[in-house]
Input
Amino acid sequence: MSGVADQAETWPVHEVEDIWSGPAPFSVRRDTLSAPDRPEVTFGRLVLEHPGAVVVLALDEQDRVLVLHQYRHPVGHRLVELPAGLLDVEGEDPLVTAQRELREEALVLAERWQHLLTTYSSPGLTSEVIHYYVAQGLSAAPDRDGFEPEHEEADMTLEWVPLDELLTAVREGRVADGPTAFAVLAYLQLLR
Output
């Protein structure tokens, strides 16, 4: 077992300025901080506070992956993505969120769930942590359990893609969604 591991650490924060908060489940603040051994030298860092998210790699018996095609305005593309969602229910276990998102976005249930990995999406800017799961033993959900897709989600389409084909698309840069790439690569590493 390797000793390589991230370590929890906090540096002194001298001032916190709230920059933005609104109806979205995230906010932006500016922290003024210093290194522990140099409190007289302060500097600022913007922080996007984010509740976190889940991503689901749903695989059927033919090794096909359920993907969504969804428009993402910040990048100006309709991306190939995996079912995913925010940890926007306070105190909810990420696995429960993953199960809910798979049902809401894809009308799919799964018998078997496995945690794949957990990553920070961009730790120099945001507190967002993403929990990745593999879902197998799939079946159709009877309904979305009251969820009504709107905006970009109302325009999503679904497709079953062979795992090898999705891997090739990720490696060739035709599928560029980071969480999708992480999930596919981590799952293939797990199979090794």
Q: What stands out?
A: The first helix runs from residue 94 to 106. Helices lie at 94-106, 163-171, 178-191. The radius of gyration is 19 Å.
